[in-house]
Amino acid sequence: MPAAEVDAAREQGVRTQGEHFDTTRLPLSDEHWRYREFTDDERAEIDQIKNGELVETYIRPGIFEWQPAGEKQGQQA
Question: How do residues 24-71 score in pLDDT, each as one tens digit?
């Protein structure tokens, strides 16, 4: 999907629903959303998450990152 189209949809959402518009509800038709298979790297990362090897870590308000279990913001525990 062209980035300009997404940006225009986001701007429309902010205009109609306010500054805190939920970007998961962009006013785009279903024809813009496509299913795709996971890449090998994505599949490996999902397996690491399922096995507890990667954990979601709070960085700062609204910012979370996937990090190896036992690490805290880039430092070994």
Answer: 665 566 665 666 788 999 999 999 999 999 999 888 888 889 899 886
DSSP state of 53: S
Whether the model pTM is above 0.70: no
Kindly state the greatest CA–CA separation across the chain.
46
Question: In which residue are the tokens 């805290």 written?
Answer: 72
Q: In 3-state terms, what secondary structure has residue 69?
A: coil
What phi, psi does 73 have (nearest 5°)? 45, 50
Three-state DSSP class for residue 56: strand
By DSSP bridging, strand 71-72 and strand 75-76 are antiparallel
Angle 59-61-65 from CA coordinates, rounded to 5°: 35
